[in-house]
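Comment thread on ticket #2218

A.B. wrote:
> Attaching the input chain for the structure job we discussed in standup.
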Amino acid sequence: MKESVKDKIVGTWKLLSWKYVPGDSEPVEFFGKNPLGILMYDTHGYMNAQLMKSGRSNFTSASMAEGTPEEFTEAYLSYAAYWGKYYEKSPGELIHEVEGSLFPNWVGHDEIRYAKIEGDYLILSTPMFQVTWKRA
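C.D. wrote:
> Ran it. Output below, let me know if you need it in another format.
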């Protein structure tokens, strides 16, 4: 029987790894070996996730609005972020109700994450991904 994680996930978590698990193939580090990120769950039912590839390139311009098409593409493909409400549907099954996201298709969508806690580590998974966090 799975254990409830609702009260144990509250707080701040630092990203350790984000692995893409393509079926029977070997897992792939989605943002490389040393990704950066933060995940926060609060007691009011809100969450926030920010994940990025380390060593991202700066834009040539100092303006956020004046990058080249290649700079915008690289920036978008090396960062993931979303926030919203969360609840535990059943023990270990978290529902993230996405209110805002870098990926517009997620806005208004529920993202399901299967959670388990092992000591100071939180492992969130989907059928295709496994993301490991360490309590900050």
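A.B. wrote:
> Thanks. Noting for the ticket: The mean pLDDT is 96.
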